[in-house]
Amino acid sequence: MISSMLVTESLSGDAAKINSAGALRMQAIRISRAYFVEHTDNNQLIKKESQAFDKRLKNLLAGGLLNSGSNPKISKQYQKIVTFWTDIKHKKNHQHSALERQKSFADFDHFVEIIDKLVTLLQLESENKLSILRLIQGLSLLLVLIISVIVLIKLNKSVIIPLKQLVNVANEAGKGNFDLKVQYQGDDELGVLSHTINQMSNELKTTYQDFEQRVEQKTQELTQSNQSLEMLFHAAKQLTSYDSHQTSNPQSKQNISPLIIKELEQVLGFGKVNIKLNQQNNLIIDVTNPLDNIDHICFNHIKFPLEKQTLLFGYLIWQFPKTEQVKPWQQQILQAMADIIATAIELDQKRNSENRLLIMEERAVIARELHDSLAQSLSYLKVQMSLLTRKMQKQVPSTQLDEGVNETIKDIKQGLNAAYLQLRELLTTFRLKLDDPSLENSLQGTVAEFKEKCQHPIKLNYQLPNNYLNANQEIHLLQIIREALSNIYRHAKASKASVDISQINDIVNIKISDNGKGLPKEFTQQGHFGLGIMEERAKSLNTLINIKTIKPHGTEINLTFKR
Q1: Higher-confidence position of 69 and 477
Q2: Of 66, 72, 254, 490, whose Cβ has the fewest other Cβ atoms within 10 Å?
Q3: β partners of residue 260
Q4: Which residues partner with 560 through β-bridges?
């Protein structure tokens, strides 16, 4: 571009020079004509034209960055014109004859040819400059193309290809493939970026593998935890729900424990599990003496106590090879199994104790019933028999003896009848159970039974929701109502009675009333075994019974307890 500017600057004024050279040629022709027309030397036209020629000749090669005078040919031709013009002016001053004038005309023609050759040289010089300019522009264009190709190749090699590799590596890294690396290496920014991308890919690969290992480890831990929880749930369900007193088939008692122990050994992965109890227990447990089977040279063992509230029932023993490493979760699951077994043993012992207490309580109730009813009747009969024996042993007239004996026999018959009725009442009470799932239906049956006995209406008003009370509350409530209706039947001499059962929030209200003769003036509950049993059953419901006389006549029993 600088060369083009220099050549272009050198072309400045070339057209003016060519034009000036052409004007010199025309000026020479005009001087020649002036000489041909005028014959005097003092002709003003010749002087004027000569002065104009001198001026133009002097300024011919002036101007431009590169003066045309630097061209040897042009300079030589220019000097030739100057010399020839000097000769013409010298000859012009000494021309007197016609022959000399004629020769002067020939010199002017030759002078015009010399000037014309200068014009041609100036034209050729200008054309050469244009050719040089074209060459410079062509070479510049070619050089630009070559440099562009080199730059593009270099750019593609050092920028485009590395960028494509960076994009490809980034895309593959986004898909989880961290093995692909950028191959470009250099000290420039892309080289630093490529090295950073490769380093980041390696770190991501390490992190990704670490995360995969953690996920796999967590998955294994969750699987183990799930299996452990499932096994513990099955074991807890089977052991804690087992009742040794309700299982009558001894063969079925041996089917649960091996499965529990086998599942536990499968979850642990290695080793053998055994249980040693301090005393024989009815639980379905695979009880052996593992200490006799442990090889202390090749195997280790860990003992987990089966204890509950300072009570030690035995040990759960895990025997495993010494080459195996015990993990914390294995110890945790064994400890949990030991706790479940200890809880099952404790629950079974509690059930046994509760069953014994229930049996003892029922026996106590039977003993009280027999003592307060049948035993008193038999005592009364025993006394009557003693009176009969004494009367028969005394020396009294036969008439008086027969009357006393008959009276005693009559009392004995009445006592036997009363004892028989009391025995039937006790049998009815002890055989009482809720076969019907609805308490209301059982109460309707009880009311219908005593309505037939009493021969008067008994109204039942039941307002409890279905299954509102538990089984224990229902049986106690039914027994209290039966005892109350039994007392109405035996003592009240009423013409009607009613049983009202209602509830407000969680409070259950029971009212049993009749229109009979009411309570005696000096009434006490002592000596009335039926009322005593009602009081005991009320205590089982965490409440008390209130018995009162209603005006003008009748009795009312009130009972209130919380559900």
Answers
A1: 477
A2: 72
A3: none
A4: 509
Place of tokens 């809720």: 434
Peptide bond into 552 cis (omega under 30): yes
Residue range 2-145 in CATH 1.10.3720.10: no
CATH architecture entry for 228-243+255-348: 2-Layer Sandwich (3.30)
Report pLDDT for 36.
60
Token duo for residue 4? 């083009």
Q: What are phi and psi of 304, to 5 degrees?
A: -115, 115
3-class DSSP state of 462:
strand
Q: Rounded to an integer, what distance in angstroms lies between the CA atom of residue 285 and that of residue 253?
A: 9
**Two structure tokens written together for 467:** 């299954």
Sequence length of the chain is: 563
User: 409 vs 169, which has greater pLDDT?
Assistant: 169
Q: Where in the chain are the domains?
A: 2-145, 228-243+255-348, 436-563
Beta carbons of 39 and 164 less than 8 angstroms apart:
no
Lowest mean per-residue pLDDT among 8-17, 229-238, 263-272, 458-467? 8-17
Determine whether 312 is exposed, middle or buried from the number of CB atoms within 10 Å of its CB (0-12, 13-18, 19+).
exposed
Per DSSP bridges, beta strands 299-308 and 311-321 are antiparallel
**Using alpha carbons only, what angle is made at residue 410 by residues 405 and 415, rounded to the nearest 5 degrees?**
125
DSSP code string of 66-101 = S-GGGSHHHHHHHHHHHHHHHHHHHHHHT--SHHHH
The domain 436-563: what is its CATH number? 3.30.565.10
Neighbour tally for 236: CB within 10 Å = 18
| Burial state string for 475-514 with b = 16 or more CB within 10 A and e = fewer than 16 | bbbbbbbbbbbbbbbebbebeebbbebeeeeeebebbbbb
- CB contact at 8 A, 516 and 492: yes
Contact 546, 559 (CB under 8 A): yes
Largest CA distance in the chain: 238
**Can you tell me which residue has the tokens 């020079």?**
17
Tokens of 253: 């008692």
The CA distance from 334 to 232, in Å, is 10
Instruction: Tell me the per-residue pLDDT of 463-511, one tens digit each, with 9 for 90 and over.
Output: 988 778 877 788 888 888 988 898 898 888 899 999 999 999 889 999 9
Structural element, H or E, at residue 176: none
Q: CA–CA separation, 97 vs 92, rounded Å?
A: 11
- 510 close to 472: Cβ distance less than 8 angstroms: no
Q: For 147-185, what is each residue's pLDDT tens digit?
A: 999 999 988 888 888 888 888 888 888 888 888 888 878
Is 531 within 8 Å of 547 (Cβ atoms)? yes
